[in-house]
Write a structure and sequence with these properties.
Layout: E1 2-7, H1 15-22, E2 28-35, E3 42-50, H2 53-63, E4 67-68, E5 71-72, E6 74-77
Antiparallel strand pairs: 1-3, 1-6, 2-3, 4-5
């Protein structure tokens, strides 16, 4: 799967309109129009997953810079960047020390009460 960024289209475009534009150049797997969370109004760009790289390259070549509805399209292949873990942090849990804390953190032991932290339970509200 190759992901395309398609931007600059009119705000009233639907998934079908984008499919008719891009689908001429290759097979489409998915279309995701980015919309405002509150108003659900289109932000003017979308991500289109193409089945093969050849179709994606044809779509970029044919559509990038063309004018649709008085606006200029911006169509690019979106490069997937590999996820690089932050140095010094691990997703593996740290073992407990003899005082009950994980690692050398002083969380919960500022009052020298043995290092345990208990969360107070709030009473549940009736339904």
């Amino acid at each position: 799967m190759i992901k395309l960024f398609v931007g600059g289209f009119p705000l009233d475009f639907t998934e079908l309109d984008i499919a008719m534009l891009v689908g001429l150049h290759g097979d489409i797997s998915t279309i995701k129009i980015v919309r405002d969370k509150k108003t659900r109004i289109c932000k003017g760009y979308a991500f289109v997953e193409m089945v093969d790289k050849d179709g994606a390259e044809r779509a970029v070549e044919a559509l990038d810079g063309t004018e649709v509805g008085g606006r200029q399209l911006n169509v690019k292949i979106r490069e997937e960047k590999p996820v690089v873990p932050v140095r010094g942090y691990s997703s593996a849990p740290r073992p407990f020390s003899s005082d009950g804390n994980r690692g050398n953190s002083s969380f919960g032991s500022s009052n020298n009460s043995g290092g345990s932290y208990e969360k107070k339970k709030r009473p549940r509200r009736p339904l």
